[in-house]
Amino acid sequence: MARFNLFDAEEKLLEQAGELRTQMAEASPEVRDGLDRLIDAYGRGVREQRRLVKVSDRLQAQLATVNQELGKRKAEAEEALDHLKAAQESLVQAEKLASLGALVGGVAHEINTPVGIALSCASHLADATARMRKLFEADDIGVDDFERFMATVTDTTGLILSNCERAADLIRSFKQVAVDRTTSERRRFDLGAYIRETLASLAPHLRQAGHAVTVDCPEAVEMNSYPGALSQVLSNFVMNSLIHGFDPGQVGSIGIQVERPDPGSVRILYCDNGKGIADEHRGRVFDPFFTTRRGAGGSGLGLNIVYNLVVGPLGGSVQVEPRDGGGTCFVVTIPLSAE
What we know:
With 339 residues, the protein is α+β, with helices and mostly antiparallel strands. It contains 8 helices and 7 strands. Among the domains are: 2-74; 187-339, Heat Shock Protein 90 (2-Layer Sandwich), CATH 3.30.565.10. Keywords: Coiled coil, Kinase, Transferase.
C-alpha cells in the first residue's frame, strides 16, 4: 500500500509542477523549456516506475505459483522416496527370509542322510533281535549265533550313535545360526567355530557344486558382536560365488582367511577363484538392485545386504579387490567388540 501512496505523492508533485509552469508563463523561454523538460522527465520516470511495479507484481505471482508447484513436487518426491524405501526394506527382508529358507532346506536335506542310516541300522538291529528271541525261545542258541548277534549289535549301535551325533551336530549348528539370523542378538562367540558352523549349514550347496572350501583362522578369537549378521554376510558371499563366480559344472575353490591387523579388530578375507568381477562393475557391486544376472535369479540385494550389515551392526568396512590369477576377494574389517 505504501508503494501506491508514493505514486499518489508523485502525481501530486506533477500537478504542482503543472501549476508552477502556469505561474511561470511570463518567465524567459529558456526557463520554461528547462522546466518543461524537467517535468516531462519526471513524468517518464513515474510511468517507468509504475511499469516496473506491474512487472514485479507479475513476476512475484509467477514465482509464488512456481514455489507452490515446487512444494507440491517435493511432497510427491518425498512420498515416492518413502514408498521406495519401504519397498526396498521389504525386498531386503524377503531376501533374508529366502536365504534362511534355503538354509532350512539344505540342512533338512543334510540331516536326512544320517537319520536314514540310523533308521536302517535300527531296523536291522530289530530284525536281528527278533531272530535271537526266536532262537532263545526254542532253546536253540549256539555260540556262533550269539557271536554273530553281538557283532551285529556292536556294528549297528556304533553306526546309530555316530549318525545320531552327526545329525545332532547339524541340528545344533542350524539352530544356533537360525536363531542368530532371526533375533539379531549380540553375544560372545568363537569366530573360527562360528565360521565353520555357518559353512556346515551351507554344506549341501557346496557339496552339490563340488567346490573345495578352506578356513584359516587363529585359535581362540573371541568376539562380542552380532553372529547373525556375520553369518548372513558369509552366506551371501558363498551364494554370490555359487551364482555369479562359477559357471555351471565348474569346480572351484573358496578360501576364508582371518587376520589380526590390530588387537581390537579382525580382517576376514573371503576369496574364490571364479570368473571375478569386471572392472566397470567393481564400483557398483554394493549398490542396491545392481546385478549382472537380471532375470536369471539375481535380485541385486545380496551384496547390498552385506554392506549394510558390515557397516551397520558389525561396525566395520567391506571392499572388493581383484585376485591375482582370477577370481574375487572380499575384505571385511570389523572390531572384536561391536559398538
